[in-house]
Amino acid sequence: MRSQHGVVLVCERIDRDGTTVVGFLLGATHRTALVRDLLTRDRTALVGCAALALAGRPRTLLLFARTRLRRYTRRLRTPAAVGGPEGRVADLSAIAVDLSARDQGAGAALVRGFLARCAVTGVRTAELVTEIGGPAESFYRGLGWSPLEDVRTRDGRWVRRFGTTLPVEART
Question: Is the pLDDT of residue 81 over 90?
Answer without folding.
Answer: no
